[in-house]
Design a protein that fits this description.
There is one protein chain. The two termini are about 65 Å apart. β2 and β3 (about 360-365) form a beta hairpin. α5 (about 120-150) packs parallel to α7 and α9 (about 285-305) runs parallel beside α10. The chain is elongated, with a radius of gyration of 32 Å. It is of the alpha+beta class. A 5-stranded mixed sheet has the order 1-2-3-5-4. It is built from 11 helices and 5 strands. It has helices at about 1-25, 30-55, 55-80, 85-110, 120-150, 155-175, 185-260, 260-275, 285-305, 320-340, 390-400, and strands at about 305-310, 345-355, 360-365, 405-410, 415-420. The longest helix is centred in the middle third of the chain and has 74 residues, at about 185-260.
């Protein structure tokens, strides 16, 4: 009847891979990931099943870390998008859950099935798909979102799950299988019961972090909307004030000209022009986007920085809410960066133009000499104050909402932010 045991082991190893693939983030596209996984993990799985058949469960349980866990750890680490706590936590969670199912079904078969391996096979045939269904139904989407949004705190959870895996493995296999040590069975069952409770606590803590992140993002979006509306209101108020003041300016100019004071009238007009040029700036036909650009143009001017604008959009309908988020966050980051530089190096530029079906936005600003950002990596902020560190992630989310992408990198002492969105 060992054929039932071998089938159950092959089934288990296959579903451990499925469970892990559901939760981790590969750096390759799905098709390439599946091909690489099959080429590496297929032979490794067959090797462990063959070892189980030849040497028995007792021997293989003692060497499974060397023959299965470590090789798969190294392989998935190599193709994973995450290299630190996120990856190790995901790897340890899936392996510990799988080990828990293996141990429980093994105990049930030993005490209820008479070691015929039928109970073991049926248990694994049912439990692994059930866990995968629960993962897809309740866990996968928020867990992937959590990996995307939360950067800190994964290391300690990864350490906890790794210790749990080792504890289960040692308790179940050394010095002999737990079925050969009935005096320790009670403590082993307690450990098995504690594991789901521990993981429930860990995932509850992680989910609270996700809810906090969502709240912060929502507050960030509302703040951006409020900021955009305030800039529009301020611009409208300035224009109304300018219209009101024009009456007084007209009276003054008429008086100067009536007395033949032409030079004084010209000087007065120049002063009027310098006072109104920022109010009358029109970089874009869209009033919402123009409001953001005008606000930051004035902000850069007050800093003594040069802001070049090349806006090639017309009167077409645009998703202005998301575009205002992208521009205001990008320009705020650029303003913060050039503010730290010497006056002669304070330069930034904005380009908006179409390329086929996409609207391309490029914000470029001078940056510190020691700042190095590789393309495809979103840098984290080095500011400790509350409220910092959301700008680039907000831009990234706004771009995704418009079926687009965001890239940032450093090039020739400049920080470049490229955003492409469908409009």
């Amino acid at each position: 009847m060992t054929v039932f045991r071998d089938i159950s082991m092959l089934w288990s190893l296959f579903h451990i891979l499925i469970l892990f693939i559901l939760l981790y983030r590969s750096r390759y596209e799905r098709r390439k990931t599946l091909i690489l996984t099959g080429l590496v993990m297929g032979p490794l799985t067959l090797l462990n099943v063959a070892g189980m058949t030849i040497f028995g469960a007792g021997i293989m349980a003692k060497v499974i870390i060397l023959t299965g866990t470590l090789p798969s750890l190294l392989f998935f680490w190599f193709i994973s998008k995450d290299k630190k706590g996120k990856f190790f936590f995901t790897f340890c969670v899936t392996n510990t859950v799988a080990l828990w199912i293996l141990l429980v079904t093994n105990l049930l078969d030993f005490y209820l099935g008479g070691q015929q391996y039928i109970v073991m096979l049926i248990g694994r045939l049912l439990l692994f798909p059930l866990v995968e269904w629960g993962t897809v139904r309740y866990l996968r989407k928020p867990y992937l979102e959590l990996q995307e949004s939360v950067a800190e705190g994964w290391g300690i959870f990864a350490g906890m799950t790794a210790l749990y895996y080792i504890l289960l493995l040692v308790k179940a296999s050394f010095p002999v299988l737990i079925t050969g040590r009935p005096q320790e069975l009670a403590s082993f069952i307690v450990i098995l019961l504690l594991m789901p409770m521990t993981y429930a606590t860990i995932f509850s803590a992680l989910y609270r972090q996700l809810l906090l992140y969502r709240k912060q993002q929502s507050e960030r979006v509302l703040s951006e909307q409020k900021h955009s509306l305030e800039m529009q209101l301020e611009s409208q108020q300035q224009i109304r004030k300018m219209k009101h003041d024009l009456k007084g300016h007209t009276v003054t100019l008429s008086g100067l000209l009536s007395f033949g004071k032409t030079e004084e009238a010209v000087l007065y007009l120049k002063n009027m022009e310098s006072g109104m040029e920022t109010v009358l700036c029109r970089f874009c036909v869209n009033p919402y986007i123009n409001s953001v650009l005008s606000h930051y143009y004035q902000k850069f001017q007050k800093l003594g920085a040069e802001l070049s604008l090349d806006i090639q959009v017309g009167e077409e309908a645009l998703p202005y809410m998301e575009l205002c988020q992208i521009l205001s966050n990008g320009l705020e980051n650029a303003w913060e960066a050039v503010r730290e530089l010497p006056a002669e190096e304070r330069e930034a530029s904005v380009q908006m133009k179409y390329s086929r079906d996409y609207l391309i936005i490029r914000i470029r600003n001078k940056c510190r000499r020691d700042l190095i950002v590789e393309k495809g990596i979103v840098p984290s902020t080095d500011k400790k104050e509350a409220g910092h560190g959301f700008g680039l992630f907000t831009i990234q989310e706004a771009a995704k909402q418009l079926d687009g992408e965001m890239f940032c990198y450093t090039d020739n002492r400049s920080f470049v932010l490229d955003v492409m969105v469908r409009t």
